[in-house]
């Protein structure tokens, strides 16, 4: 073996900025027996593009499942993991763009096997199969590809790619762990056995592609399509699990209580916890925008809107934690879902985006998110102040996202706002119809919740607060009157 010659490193300091040993840097630069380079820009970009394709499809898949998934924990999990996939896609796009790749070719399908794998997963008909496809097959394949990329890429010449592979592996390892915990909870041994054939078919898709990164010999044949023989049909109809009771109930208007000066800040925190938890319907609505505008907007739009979608799911969980801090079971409170249901059914994607932007801008004045934060601070409930602090920061970001992606479609900010207001005014609340159809009585659940909270706080209920009974019958959430 050729003796390496290098200047001695001062006081045995790590060589090559700690990336690797000198020996490894030399060895991994050696040519293959056939004279080809062991690693190159082409090798690197091809692997990155395969990862990009799979992670972008997973982001789209998780997003598309959010409205129709009834289980609360999975609805929020899909929102989170869609966002994590979007972050990795952004890393990959940036890295590919650095390597002599204009045009980037990131919309190209790298192999029919990967396409079929992801077509099968998105079309999976049950929650169990959906979890299995992502957390038993697709995501482990992503992590394996990242591990090989860290090992195969030249650690000095291609250090930025190694970093990307490390970051993806680090962040998605946790996502895989959580997803597999969901599998343990929801897929028993009998069901796993039933999934065996489909699981083998998904593995065959990977084998046909030479694995996710194309580093293994590719097989010739693909399995017959099981679920993807017909294109996936997105369902925008929100579904909720059995813990959500009386979800058509619009018998309490929390905004009216929140802005009423007669009521104490402490009492108002209950309504803010409710408002946060009710934000679960925002990811259900935003998912429909992202799915329906998939081909009409650039990646950057989807990247930023996916972040916002995840923030809204996070806000819903803040409401859950707020009630838990008081020892209150949120499942005993009717969590209304008619906002997402009505918008998804009555408006197109552009109109829904208009409503979303109009609401965001309405939260920016002093009477909006700042006011909620001030109420949280004044309430004597530290958790409420903390949550509203970050909720406010998130909504400022969301308003900026809207200004980047929604407002430019109009001649002015005022015109954009007017359109959003007009779209929201088109939405029929069906308040009376839901009652007449027997879907809800619009029961006033507030006195029961307030009494329980006062018991937890050790205080006597305020008679005026106890008597609050304003509904959504004649006004919407911004307190504008309905015609």
Task: Provide a descriptive summary of the structure in words.
With 483 residues, the chain is mainly alpha-helical. It has helices spanning 22-27, 41-65, 72-97, 112-122, 127-152, 159-186, 189-194, 196-208, 254-258, 265-278, 281-292, 299-325, 338-346, 349-362, 366-378, 382-405, 413-426, 431-436, 446-457, 463-466. α2 (41-65) packs antiparallel against α5. It is elongated, with a radius of gyration of 26 Å.
Which terms summarize this structure?
Heme Oxygenase, Chain A; 2 domains; mainly alpha; Ferritin
Q: What topology emerges from the helices and strands here?
A:
Blueprint: H1 22-27, H2 41-65, H3 72-97, H4 112-122, H5 127-152, H6 159-186, H7 189-194, H8 196-208, H9 254-258, H10 265-278, H11 281-292, H12 299-325, H13 338-346, H14 349-362, H15 366-378, H16 382-405, H17 413-426, H18 431-436, H19 446-457, H20 463-466
Helix pairs in contact: 2-3, 2-4, 2-5, 2-11, 3-6, 3-12, 4-5, 4-8, 5-6, 5-8, 10-12, 10-15, 11-12, 11-13, 11-14, 12-16, 14-16, 14-17, 15-16
